[in-house]
Amino acid sequence: MMAPRTRHRDFAGLEQRRKQAVEWFAKGESQAWVARRLRVSRQSVSRWHKYWKSKGEAGLGGAGRAGRKPRLSPGQMEKVDAALRQGALRHGYGTELWTLPRVAVVIQRLTGVKYHPGHVWKLLGALDWSVQKPTQQARERDAAKVRYWIERRWPEVKKTLGAAKPGSTSRTNRASPSNPRSAPPGRRAAKPRS
Fold first, then answer.
1. Does residue 88 share a domain with residue 54?
2. % of the chain surpassing 70 pLDDT
3. pLDDT reported for residue 133
4. CA distances (Å), 8 to each of 3, 5, 11, 13, 60, in order?
5. CA distance 139 to 173
6. Residue at 115 is within a domain
7. Are residues 81 and 122 in the same domain?
8. Domain span at residue 19?
9. Which pairs count as long-range contacts for 150-157, CB under 8 Å and 24+ apart, including other chains?
10. Does residue 56 sit in the same domain as residue 81?
11. Residue 60 and residue 51 in contact, taking contact as beta carbons nearer than 8 Å
C-alpha cells in the first residue's frame, strides 16, 4: 500500500505573493490590511514586514525547495531502479520476492547510502513501484479436499444447533434461578423505611 502523493507547493506563486505584500508595505498599507487582501495569517505578514525592513525586498526571495535534500541523486535512483528490475535472484537472493530489507541492502551496495527498511517504501513509491502480493499456494494444498470442504463440509458445520429457533440476547436462561424476576408492570412497591 503506497501513500498518496502530496501536492507540490507553488514556490513561484508564494514568492509573487510576498512581492505584492512588499509593494503594499511601500505604499504604507497596514499589515492587517495586507493579510486580509492576500488571505494569509497576520503572523506571516508580520514576519514578511520584519524581513522587508531589515533586508529589503531581497529578504523575501524564495528559499528554493522545501524539506531535506534527497540523499540519492536522480542518477543513483535510476541505477537502483535498473538493479531492482533485474530481479532478486540476480542479486543473490533465493527467491524473486523483493522485501524492504532486501531493497535496503541493494541500495547500500550500489550507492553506499544506508536506509532503514521502513523508509525504503517511500523510495520505491518515488520510483513508481507498488506493493505486490505473491500468488503462491501451499505445496500441501489439495484442490479436491478444498472443494469438498467448501461444497459439503462447510454447509454442515455452518448449520448450528438451534439456529432456527428465536434467540435471546441474554446470556442466562429466562427461567434460570440466577435470573431474578422483575416486578409486574405498574407502580413500584414502596421500600420499607428503617
1. no
2. 73
3. 73
4. 15, 9, 9, 12, 20
5. 48
6. yes
7. yes
8. 11-60
9. none
10. no
11. yes
Report how far apart, in Å, the C-alpha atoms of 15 and of each of 48, 63, 164 are: 11, 9, 72
Instruction: Name the amino acid, one letter, at 29.
Output: E
Same domain, 44 and 88: no
| 8 A C-beta contact, residue 77 and residue 127 | yes
Domains in the chain, number = 2
Boundary residue ending a domain (108, 126, 144):
126
Contact present, 45 and 38 (Cβ < 8 Å): yes
* Structure confidence by residue, pLDDT tens digits, 142-157: 889 888 988 888 888 8
- Between CA 88 and CA 84 the distance in angstroms is 7
User: Mind listing the pLDDT tens digit for each residue in 51-94?
Assistant: 888 887 777 776 656 677 888 899 999 999 999 999 999 999 98
As a whole number of angstroms, the distance between CA 166 and CA 163 comes to 8
Mean pLDDT of 34-62: 85
Does the structure show a pLDDT above 50 at 190?
Answer: yes
Instruction: Provide φ and ψ at 47, rounded to 5°.
Output: -65, -45
Q: Residue 93 falls within a domain, yes or no?
A: yes
Q: Is residue 103 part of a domain?
A: yes
List CB contacts of 185: < 8 A, sequence separation 6 or more: none
Q: Global pTM? A: 0.44
Q: Is residue 55 located within the same domain as residue 80?
A: no
Q: Within a domain: residue 136?
A: no
Angstrom distances, CA of residue 56 to CA of 35, 97, 182: 19, 57, 84
In the structure grid, which three cell numbers stand for residue 170, read together?
Answer: 441474554
Please give the biggest Cα pair distance in the chain.
91
